[in-house]
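Final report, Chapter 2: Outcomes

The project's central promise was a pipeline that accepts a single protein chain and returns its three-dimensional structure in a standardized token representation, suitable for archiving and comparison. That pipeline is now operational. To close this chapter, we reproduce one record exactly as it appears in the project archive, with the input sequence first and the structure output second.
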Amino acid sequence: MKIMYALVVPVVTLVTLLLVQVSGLSVPMRITMTTGASTDFSVVGEGKVEVVPDTGYVEVGITANKLATAEEAQSKIAATNDQIVEKMKSFDIEAADIKTTNYSINPNYDWSEAGGGAINGYNGTATLAIKVREPDMLAAVVESAIAAGATDVYNTRFDVEDPAQYREQARTQAIDNAKEQAQKLASQLGIRLGRITNVVESTQSGDNPIAFRTEMGFGGGGAVADMQKGSQVITSTVTLYFEKK
């Protein structure tokens, strides 16, 4: 009996794979069939929704190097910070959408033989995270921040601020896809499906890197890169578990 069972299982698996090829069932698909359990048939469905991002994000850095005192470094950072915030008003960016994510003032040491490790000034850094609710203005926002004294630009990206509604659409597609595939496969195999006994979902938002057309210039009058929003794919993968009659 053990020998017969070992031969039957590969044959059933092969038949199932052939049915997938000839019946037009879409992939990815995972089928689980066991014996002696009420929930013994599961199918995976996938849904995808492509969304144009509606929000831009950028972090700009401010630096002050080798100022005579810590107070001077603080003043330089504060002045540049105020200039950037003032510039952002022209884009209707509110103070609530500008956040300081890093701020530090540190002594600068002269480690040369003549200096002997003595403090020869103070350095300051700060980073402002800016949320841009009009994503088409992101490149102009970056350019204005640089003009106001920002020395670095980090983590420039586009995103969907509230993806929940799109996840719901993707989930509905995934459920419909799983049901369709379950019915096709059940028909091919002569299986009667009972009620759905369990649902497992996983969601994922695709990354949305920015496409740069030109090099970004900092402090040298270079043009800011042309930033493309592109699209973001939000997916939902749903596994439906059926009773098999």
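Archive annotation: The longest strand covers residues 118-132.
This record, like all others produced under the grant, will remain available to the consortium after the project formally closes.
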